[in-house]
Amino acid sequence: MSVASQVRRSGAARRRKLKPTLIVRIRGGIGNQLFQYALGRKIALETGMKLRFDRSEYDQYFNRSYCLNLFKTQGLSATESEMSAVLWPAQSFGQTVKLCRKFYPFYQRRYIREDELLQDNETPVLKQSAYLDGYWQTWEIPFSIMEQLRDEITLKKPMVLERLKLLQRIKSGPSAALHVRYGDYSQAHNLQNFGLCSAGYYKGAMDFLTERVPGLTFYVFSDSPERAREVVPQQENVYFADPMQDGKDHEDLMVMSSCDHIVTANSTFSWWAAFLNGNEDKHVIAPLKWFKNPNLDDSLIVPPHWQRL
Fold first, then answer.
1. Residue 146 and residue 263: Cα distance in Å, rounded?
2. For this chain's UniProt record, which GO biological process terms are given (predicted)?
């Protein structure tokens, strides 16, 4: 066999041994990122694909920070060569990708949008390298690999002292976290889709838990502490855990998840606090209307075993 033939055969063998690469587009805040991670992790576990993340969104928009690297998550940030290999003939995500998808039928298997991948609420097994674009907010995906995610979504570094003190206080007796999200939800475009949880919702949730858990203390977490004091009753068993403004929202998430019970807002942040909570006897309360927009379906995001009020 000639040298050239040996080189060709060797190269072909190496290509056969290369694992296909799964690149997941990461965007949004912590809650959104964790849903995107959950889908990528599930597919990687089922297929053995290399898991990579396109975090380029955070180079363009600075109102959110990339957070997956603050946890013990698996997978790496996608390199330029990995991006170009998966998205070829495009070099990176953008308008070229959308044009390729329009004109090349094969590209629909390479660049996959959320509305196509989650048809019939099933996650298909991918057999070749692909780029996934979406939010993937379906409760069944994280719950299908729950123990794996709970092991991995833990902090790489210890919390700051003030949060450790709060954690110690929470552990001193029966506790429930209440999440009040108003900040960015008060903006017009978010208000149309999500709406705001009312004072009546929080009072109903507190009454529900108080009837079932004696000696309960409620810990209120909010991005709008002044507004939180307007919608949550200020009583002896309520403690307002005001934000520390240090950019360590990932630590707040873990503190919230340590409470015995969770009252979520219509927010993926407190959704993940409830999911990460390992208390087998916990009560999780979620708003009856997750979305204000009637065209949005919340049956996929809220698990049926959570209490809706």
1. 20
2. carbohydrate metabolic process
What are the distances in angstroms from CA 304 to CA 23, 201, 212, 300? 30, 18, 20, 9
Out of 114, 144, 174, a domain closes at: 144
Output the domain CATH number for residue 296. 3.40.50
Boundaries of domain holding 304: 158-308
Same domain, 238 and 163: yes
Q: Are residues 62 and 162 in the same domain?
A: no
Name the 3-class secondary structure at 248. Answer: coil
- Phi and psi, residue 240, nearest 5°: -90, 110
Q: Is the dihedral of CA 98, 89, 125, 44 positive or negative?
A: negative
Which residues face 307 on adjacent strands?
285
Helices (H) and strands (E) in the chain, counts: 14, 11
pTM of this structure: 0.90
